[in-house]
Specification:
Blueprint (H helix, E strand, L loop, with lengths): L2 H28 L4 H12 L2 E3 L2 E4 L3 E2 L5 E7 L10 E7 L7 E6 L8 E6 L5 E9 L4 E10 L9
Parallel strand pairs: 1-9, 3-9
Antiparallel strand pairs: 2-4, 4-7, 5-6, 5-8, 8-9
Amino acid sequence: MPKHAQRRTLLGAVAAAPWWWAAFVGTASAQSSTAGSDALDERVRAAALVRGGLSLDIPVIVETGTSVPIVLFADPSQLRPAVRVTRLGIIAPKNPRPVALDMELGALMSQARIATNIRLGASQSVTGVALLSDGTVWQQSIAVVLTGSACYDGT
């Protein structure tokens, strides 16, 4: 093998190493079962829950719970001046891991809107939660009927 080919292989491996490590660490932390749920539950329990200001868009009847599209949106017109959304969460209480999403939003986030897919293990009431910088918690719940489960193996 020519010397420059070995150098390119080495440089490529070194350049890819941080991305591989970040993906590995991110996967490992995403697999933890209760770390995020305990933190989110404590914040929600300690705050005053307010209905409204939060929009949760999810199908009411779902054929299979393998991949359920969901959009969580905090209405900026409902915010008081100098108050922002600091955290968004989605809770599916009948799943083996009830906290489907727990995301912290930075100060420069212009819009508190999350679109993702979640897994559902059974028919249940899915709740969207938004934690505001003043300690208020907005919530919105929607009952989802499932015709087939996605959480057979307990994950």
